[in-house]
Specification:
By secondary structure, this protein is mainly α. It has one domain. Helix content is 77%, strand content 0%. It contains 2 helices and no strands. The model has no long low-confidence stretch (mean pLDDT 80).
Length: 60
């Protein structure tokens, strides 16, 4: 399994949260909940750990 670049994932997630926030402020969507932010943070951490493990395996 190929892990995604953690930095790229973070940037994508931050951009998605910003778009969701802007939509909520404009009244076009529900506010982003704390649980959603925490879930996305956990996903970033998981992806980062996978990337580190794959890099360590590749390095030998």
């Amino acid at each position: 399994m190929k892990a995604r670049d953690p930095a790229a994932l973070f940037v994508e997630t931050a951009a998605a949260l910003e778009r969701a926030h802007e939509a909520a402020v404009a009244g076009q969507a529900e506010p982003v909940t704390r649980a959603t932010r925490e879930c996305l943070t956990e996903k970033i951490i998981h992806e980062a750990r996978q990337a580190i493990e794959l890099a360590q395996k590749a390095a030998g």
